[in-house]
Amino acid sequence: MASDTVEELAELAGAAEAPGMPQLDFATFPNQIFWLVLALVIIFFIVSKLILPRIGGVLEERHSMISDYISQAADFKTQAEQAEADYEAALAKARAEAQAIAAETKAEIQKELDKAVAKADAEISAKTAESAKAIAVIRESAVDNVRDVALATTGDIVAALMPSLSDDAAVKAAITARMKG
Amino acid sequence: MAEHAVESAVEEGAKLNIHPMAQFEITPLFGDGAVHWYTPTNVTLWLGIAIVAIVLLMVLATRGRNVVPGRGQSIAELIYSFVRSMIVDITGEEGLKYFPYIMTLFLLILFTNVLGLLPASFTVMSHIAATAVLAMLVFTSVTLIGFYRNGPKFLKIFWVSEAPMALRPILALIEIISYFVRPVSHSIRLAGNMMAGHAVIKVFAGFAAVLAAGTPLGIGLLAPVGAIMAVFGLELLVVVIQAYVFTVLTCVYLNDALHPGH
Fold this sequence. Notes:
The structure holds two protein chains of two kinds.
Chain A: H1 2-16, H2 29-161, H3 168-180
Helix pairs in contact in A: 2-3
Chain B: H1 2-12, H2 42-60, H3 71-91, H4 99-115, H5 128-150, H6 168-214, H7 222-258
C-alpha cells in the first residue's frame, strides 16, 4: 500500500507540477529572495534598535539590583555582627562593674563588721574586767565574812568551852594564821 | 495554484489524491498571475506574520521592562540569554559585537519554522532559495570578517600546523573544499529538515482521508491521525533544533573568522 501510494503520488505530483518540487522552481527565486532580504532588514532593525537594548537593559538593571541587595545584605550582616560585639562588650563591662561593686560592698561590710566585732570585743573585755572586779570585791567580802564568822564562832566556842582562856586577840591571830595557811 | 489543487481533488473524488509538495508552492496572494520578484506571495504573508509575532513576543511583551518579569518577558529574556550565552560560549566575548546579526537569524528561523507548523501555513525555510540566502550571507560575512580582522593570517585556518609537513598541503586542500561546502550543507540541512517532516505529515493526512472513507465508521482514521500527532511532536522538536543548529554553526564559523588557526 505504502509503496503504491508513493509511486502514485510521485506520478500525481509530476502530472500536476512540471518541476515536481516547488523548491526547484527557479522562477520563484527572485520573489523569495526579495521578500526574505526585506524581512531580514526589518527584523535586524527591530532586533538592534528595540529588542537587544531593551532586554539587555532589563537584565543589566536586574543584575545591578541583585548585587545592590547582596551588598546591602552584607552591610546589614556586618552591622548585626557589630551590634552583637557591642552587646557582648557591654555585657562583659556590666558584669565586671557588678563584680567590682559587689567586691567593694563586701569589703565595706567586712570593714564595718570588723569594727563592730572589735567594738563588741572591747565592750566585752570591759564588762569582763568590771565583773572580775565585782567578783574580787565579792570574794574579799566573802573572805572577811568567813573570817568574822570564824572569829565569832571560834570566840563563842572558846568562851563556851574554856571561859577562862577567852582571849579575843589570840583567837584572831590564830584564825588569821589558819586562813592564810 | 492552490485553487488548482483543490479543483483537481474535487474532480478525482475517491481516488487516492495526495499532494505532499503542494504546501510548498509559491502562490501570489492576490489573483492568479505570474510570480514576479515584487509580487506579494505567501512568502510575504508568512514572513510578515513572523515579524508581527517577533514584535509581539520580543517587543510588546517586554514593554514594561519589569525587574520581575511576566510570562512573555520571561520567554523573551530566555531567548536573549540563550543566544547570548551561545555566542559567548563559542566565540568568546568578542563575538558579542555580532549579537544583533545572530539574534536576527535565530529569531527569523525560529519564528518562521514554528509558524510553519500551523495547519495550512507556509514554511519559508522549507525552500532552498531562502536558506541559501541566509547561508551565503553567513558565509560571505564570515569570510569578510576573517580577512578584515586577520588579514592574510586568516588563511591559516586552511593550514593545519599540528600535522606533519608532508600532509599539510593535502589537508589544506581538504580544508578549502570543506570551507566552501559549508554554505551548501548549512542551507540544505535546514531546508531538507523543514521539507521532509512537513511532507510526511501531509502524506499521512492523505492516508487519513482515504482510510476514513474506506473503513467502517471511519475507524481506520485513527492510525494515520495518531501518526500525524507523533510526527507533529517530533517536528516541533525538529524546527526548534534546526533553528538552534543553524545559529550554532553560524557561531562556529564566526569563531573561525575571529580566531583562525588550529
